[in-house]
Design brief:
The chain is an alpha+beta fold. It has two helices and four strands. 54% of the residues lie in helices and 13% in strands. The strands form two sheets. It has a two-stranded antiparallel sheet with strand order 1-3. Strands 2-4 form a two-stranded antiparallel ribbon. Helix 1 runs antiparallel to helix 2. The two termini are 21 Å apart.
């Protein structure tokens, strides 16, 4: 379920499919937390166990997409304009 544009953390991109950069502080906090989590995972997991790091990355990326679906506009293919 997506939120209306005035409450969404992530708006749809003008061109293409998916979401652009966050438009609310909550979205920015989520994006920063996601980036820091993957960075720490790369530091501690990538060298010793690449399959574990891949699973870690896929799990956190799926969680990010789930939050974008929940707190963002509905994703759709767009070619610009309104």
């Amino acid at each position: 379920m997506s939120l209306p544009k005035d409450k969404a953390w992530f708006l749809t991109k003008r061109y293409g499919y998916g979401w652009g950069l966050p438009v609310r502080w909550q979205g920015w906090a989520l994006l920063i937390a996601y980036t820091l989590t993957l960075t720490l995972g790369a530091i501690f997991l990538a060298g010793g166990n690449p399959p574990l790091f891949l699973a870690f990355t896929l799990a956190f990326s799926a969680a990010l997409v789930a939050v974008c679906l929940w707190k963002g506009e509905s994703p759709r293919w767009r070619w610009g304009g309104k």
